[in-house]
Amino acid sequence: IDAIIKITKEMSDMQKMLISLIENDDDIESFLTFFRNQMKISKNQKYFLNDLLFLIKSIDIALLNTVKKEIMYQILVKLSNEIQHNFSEDDLLSIYQNNETILLYLVENRIITINTIRKNMNYYWNKYFFPELLEDNKLLFYQYCRENKTMNDKNNIINDYLTNIDEFKLYRKENHSEDQVARIIRKDDLEAFINIVEKMDIKLNSYKIKQSFFEHQYIFCNVDLINYVVGFGSLKIFKYLLLKKVPINKFIHKYAIIGGNYEIIHILEENNIEFNSDSITTAIQYHQNEILNY
Q1: CA–CA separation, 42 and 53 (whole Å)
Q2: 113: Cβ–Cβ under 8 A, 6 or more apart, which residues?
Q3: Which of 8, 57, 178, 216 is a plausible cystine mate for 171, CB 3.0–4.6 Å?
Q4: Cα 202 to Cα 282: distance, rounded to the nearest angstrom
């Protein structure tokens, strides 16, 4: 029991340091020093490292900010020697098989080869990793496409970006919808938002951010405009929507927790939006610890 308590405390300390690193831009080297010291005294270094890999996976799923994701991914690169010593490429693929963003980063930093991706190819990966697969071996890429009819889809992403791969890579790196309205919202650029609303004659009460190949958060697919704004904490655009009398709906409290903007939460409270036990669950799920304490 004492051993279990000790391990649990070590994991808890590591999680707190990792979240602090992401949220407060703490020194990444301090975290690495702490982690390596813990590894040295650990009786099972691979097990300890395995916990970190899964912890990164867990936090990454909830993170919306790509800059913060990048900070966390740097840990994987800086620990690449330890990771490659203890885990095979297939091991890493097994851990991150449902997280293409991390797999892409591992491929880009040569911790996993694109050939390992190809050996474990599925219909979705052929699209997501198509720039790397195409560059590595055109013959094998087009052979797979022919055999699996990957490029025959009516709305095939490869056909859409085959002549503009850099744009595909940009949207893939952003990890969210390529919809221009959505991209402006995530930057909270009010001037650009007003311009595009007028240019496209957008109906603020009914416009939705549609499902996107690049969006990995299901909650942000086919979502009302105001919920999307709140979910990304875009305060200036949110206030503008309120001025335009865009109605607040019953799901907005969840997006407010995800977005983590205190001022938006206060405004919603003033508009009689209740934050209940579901809000606590959402705060835990999306690692909004400060909101949870609030």
Answers
A1: 16
A2: 89, 107
A3: 178
A4: 30
Q: Rounded to an integer, what distance in angstroms lies between the CA atom of residue 233 and that of residue 208?
A: 17
Tell me how crowded residue 19 is: count the other CB atoms within 10 A of its CB. 16
Q: For the chain, 294 residues long, give each residue's pLDDT as a single digit of tens.
A: 555 555 566 667 777 777 777 776 667 888 888 888 888 877 778 888 998 999 899 888 877 778 788 888 999 999 999 999 999 999 999 999 989 999 999 999 999 999 999 999 988 999 999 999 999 999 999 999 888 887 777 668 998 999 999 999 999 999 999 999 999 999 999 999 999 999 999 999 999 999 999 998 889 999 999 999 999 999 999 999 999 999 998 889 999 999 989 999 999 989 888 777 787 777 777 767 676 666
Q: How far, in Å, CA of 105 to CA of 73, rounded? A: 7
Q: Look-up: residue for tokens 């938002």?
A: 193
Can you count the helices (H) and strands (E) in the chain?
21, 2
pTM of the prediction?
0.86
What Å distances lie between residue 41 and 10, 14, 47, 48, 273, CA to CA? Answer: 11, 14, 12, 10, 49
Q: Which residues pair with 224 in a beta bridge?
A: 208
